[in-house]
Every structure is written in structure tokens, then in C-alpha cells.
Amino acid sequence: MKLFVKNIDRDINELQLESLFAQYGEVISTKIVYDKITWESKGFAFLEMAKKTEAYKAIDALNGKELKGRVLSVEIAVDKPR
User: Fold this and answer.
1) Global pTM?
2) Would you give the distance in Å from CA 13 to the centre of its chain?
3) How far is it, in rounded angstroms, from Cα 28 to Cα 45?
């Protein structure tokens, strides 16, 4: 199940984010979105977790949790129509 994580501190890297979510289950992939010109984090990411139950545990535990002074927003990612 793919998750959308918003309000990430710009100093957080993919490894740190993945280790946070790995406490709740297997993380298949982690992708922080970066600006194409400055290569600075845009403050959001997509994570894919192996099982839905684990993804829901991560949402319950981390949505609204403070990380480095920022309150995370974690929700199920919705695919954009092309």
C-alpha cells in the first residue's frame, strides 16, 4: 500500500524516513520528492509498505506525530488520473 507523507523537515533523508516507518512493518520503497533545480526536499514523500495492515498501523501511529519540530501528515496515496 502506498502512503503519502507531508510536512517532512527538509533535513530528513529517505533512510531516516524509512527507518521511522519500518517500526510498523516492511517498507518496500521510499521516495522523497526533491526540487529539480535546487535539489532541496519539497517536504513530502511517498512510501510503499508491504501489507495494508502495516500501512494502517503506520498511519495511526505517525499521522500527527512531531518529527524534528514538524507535525507529519500521513495518508493513503491517491493516484492521479493521467
Assistant:
1) 0.91
2) 11
3) 14
Which parts of the chain have pLDDT scores under 70? 81-82
For helices 52-62 and 14-21, angle between their N-to-C axes, nearest 10 degrees: 100
Strand order in the sheet with 27-34: 27-34, 41-49, 2-6, 73-76
Check if CATH label 3.30.1360.40 holds for domain 2-64. Answer: no
Which residues 6+ apart lie within 8 Å of 31 measured at CB? Answer: 14, 45, 46, 47
Identity of residue 65: K
